[in-house]
Each structure stands twice: as structure tokens, then as C-alpha cells.
Amino acid sequence: MNALVPLPVLLPVLAAGVKIVIGPRHPLLKRAISVAALAAVLGVAIALLVRADRDGPQAVQLGGWPAPVGITLVADRLSAVMLVVSSAVTLCVMVYAFGQDAAERDRDTPMSVFHPTYLLLAAGVCDAFLAGDLFNMFVGFEMMLMASYVLVTLGGTMARVRAGTTYIIVALLSSMLFLVAIAVLYAATGTVSMAQLSWRIAELPGPVARIAEVTLLTAFAVKAAVFPLSMWLPDSYPSAPTPVTAVFAGLLTKIGVYGIIRAETLLFPGGHLRRVLLVAALLSMLVGVLGAMVQIDVRRLLSFTLVSHIGYMIFGVGLDSAAGLAATVFYVLHHITIQTTLFLVAGLIDRRGGATSLARLGGLARTAPLVGVLFFIPAMNLGGIPPLSGFLGKLGLLRAGLAQGGPLADALVAGAVVTSLLTLYSLVKVWNQAFWSAPPEDMPEGARAGRLPIAMVAGSAALVVLSLAYTAAGGPLYALCERAADELLTPQTYVQAVFPSGGAT
Q1: pTM to 2 decimals?
Q2: Which is nearest to 375 in space by CA: 342, 336, 337?
Q3: Directed axis angle between helix 27-55 and helix 7-22, to 10°?
Q4: ∠481-482-487 over CA atoms, to 5°?
Q5: Which of 80, 266, 285, 481 has its CA 20 to 30 A from that of 334?
Q6: Alpha carbon of 416 to those of 55, 68, 384: distances in Å?
Q7: How far apart are CA 328 and CA 241, in angstroms?
Q8: Does the N-terminal peptide bond of residue 387 adopt cis geometry, omega within 30 degrees of 0?
Q9: DSSP at 201
């Protein structure tokens, strides 16, 4: 079973190479290769989750070099469940992209470039989740970011290049911070293996450990778009092609959250920066949702809700408790799916209504009722309407906050409730204007009549069904998240998987 651990990284890379060799010919074959590769990654991820949940973390040393010399990949409960959800999401977005490709053939979205680059992005995401050392995690981040640089500026239009420039500069700065943190830790401990660092960091002088922790968390916070390091996101995401925006919103920020979880549980346990994280969580929730309330463009509104709901995840990490971590893991899985779905549906709204500005939309409940259903379900889920998975995740966070107690935790609980209500208000505003109100007298030139592309609808609908499955299987899924949280708080199991014969110190 350990031999399966590298496959989520290798399969998309091999598929991307094959597609580049094939070139622009044989489009059906290239699509089949993409679907087969991502479906295989999903199957491998499910197998790894079953094994990790039953037998503990699965580790493999690539090239036969033992840790900490070689490259270590580790699939524990957290990384395996993140792999499953991210693989399902990337597969559905790829199907959506097939429909957009067939329907538009738009020179501003050259899909022959999109598909192999997208597969490299998926490989980078998987590598970041599985990395057992900080430098390999950095490599996974850079694979993902190099692909994202291409995707965010795809087509080379003025708007995309302008937005992409901001994104690239911020991403490079965060990568530089990440590399500095790795250098500090290596200079102080002599290793970048996370299993080994979990022991050696505890022996460092306090100021050195805090400098490394602050630098590492800052790098991850930029990638996660935690306030006040989030102002780049609303200007960068909305201008990209719909499949790109959707996968960025669903996955890329969660890589930063994943890094924060790893840092605060495996490398720097003890909650030294707990209050800082809680304050950042509260500000992210409130500033993000207030920004969403005043937007009139659907994509920008969703971008601000993304910032606000990152605050929920940081809230759970900052509590530094098993209950808070379990709720965070559950909410991350929920939010990856919901946020991706909403951005895909925004693309359907744009295709049918010809715009994403609320001032130019109306009457879609009559002209596109299926789009209305596909928007309504994830919108209510993001707003936290019971019994949907968004409600379950928020309830878990609120219970963990109340159990923690204290003025700051209580303020987070109140802020989370207010943010949820204001999120619901913002999404109801979209529903009332785009779907219930009368259509504008002068329909936008881009509005299209007729049936929507089947693949675009199928990709969106599949994610809606997946989000509903979180609700139907809420009990078992939440129990899995609780086991993952317990495992995170007992890093000895992770260390033992990497160093089965000892030697971590």
C-alpha cells in the first residue's frame, strides 16, 4: 500500500507530459487522458484514506534513501482526506472545462494550454499535502504556483495580465518568506524533515523558535488569504477563466490553511501564537463579509466571502483543541467543495445572463431554473442553513469556542454568528437580483439562449451532489475528522511512521 503514496503526484505529471507530446491533435484522446488520470488519483486517494484511517500514517521514502536524507511522502488521515476531496473537485472542474472548451472555443481561454497546466497544478496540490519535509512542501507549492501563474493570465488579455501581476508578486513574496523560514529552521536544527523538526524545535531557544514560527505562519497566511494579508485575492481571482477561478478559490487558499494546521500541531505545538490566530480569524471573518455585502459583481462577492470563511478555519486552529481542529478539518472539506461549486455556477450565470454584475442580471429563475437550483443549494450551505454541512461545521466551531471560554473565544463565537448571517444576506441579495427580479430591458450582448453545455452543468451538479453527501454522511465524516484531529495532537504516530526504527531526534 505504501507504493501508492507517490501516485497522486506522479499520475497528473505523466498525463500532462503525454498531452504535451500529443499536441493539439486528438482532442477526445486528450480529454480521456485527463479524466483517467484524475479519476485514478481519486481512486488512489480513497485507498490511502481507508488504509491511513485503519492502520495509521503511511510513509514512503523515495529513491531508497532513508529519512531525513531522502524525500519522504506521508499520507495520514488529514492529508489523505484532503487528497480525496481535492481530487474529486479537480476532476469535476476538469469536466466543466471540457464543456466550456466545446461551447466557446474562445481564444482568450486557450484550452490546449489549460489542460496540461491544470494537471501540473493538481500534482503540486497533491505533493503539498503529502510532503513529509518542508523543502518538498515548498517544491509542491512552487509546482502549484508556477502552474497558477500560467492559468491566472491565460489568454493574455489586459484584465488578466493586470490581475495576474498582483497575484504573481504576492505569491513570490510568500514563497520567499517560506524559503527564509526553511533556511532559519535548517540552520538552527540541521534538518527540514517535519517528523524530526517536531522534536528538535522544542530544544531551540525561545526567540529562535518564535522567529521561525512567525515567518512560516506569515508565508502560509498569505497563501491562505488571512486578513490583513488577503487584499490581493478579490482583485486576482475574478478575472481568470471560470474553471481557473473555481479551483483557485476552492483549493489554493486551503493549501495555506493546511500548512498552518501542520505548523501549529506538528512543528510548534502549544499554542504560542493562539491569540494572534484568533484575532486574525475574527478580522478575516468580519472584514471579508463586510466587503462581500457591498459588491455588485457575483465573482467579487464570492471572493470576499472566501476571505471571510477562511476566518472560520483559522478560528478552529487558534483554539488549539481537539474539538476545534476537528471542526476546522470538517469545515475545510466542506468549503473546498462549496466555494468551487459557487464559482462554477457563477460561470453558468455569466453564460446564460451575459454578465456577472447584479445590475445587468435578472429573471434567471424563469429562463434558467436549473442554474437557480445549482446556485441555491450551495448558497444556503455556505450561509449555514441547517441541516446542511455548512451548519454542521459552524456548529462544531461554535461549540469548541464556547467550551474553550474566555473573552476572545466568546468574541469569535459572536463574530462567527454575525458573519454567517451577513453571508446569508449577501447570497440572498444575489438570488433576489439575478434570479427573482425582472430581467433588464436591454439584455447584455453576451447573453445566450438555448441549452447550457451538458459538461458544464454536469461538473457543477456533481459538486452539488458531493456537498449534499457531506450532509447525508455528516456523522461518519465528522467522526473521521475527530480521529484526524486526535492524530494531529499526538504527533508521535506521524514521527513513528517516518522513523519506524527510531532516530527522529
Answers
A1: 0.92
A2: 342
A3: 180
A4: 95
A5: 266
A6: 36, 41, 11
A7: 29
A8: yes
A9: G
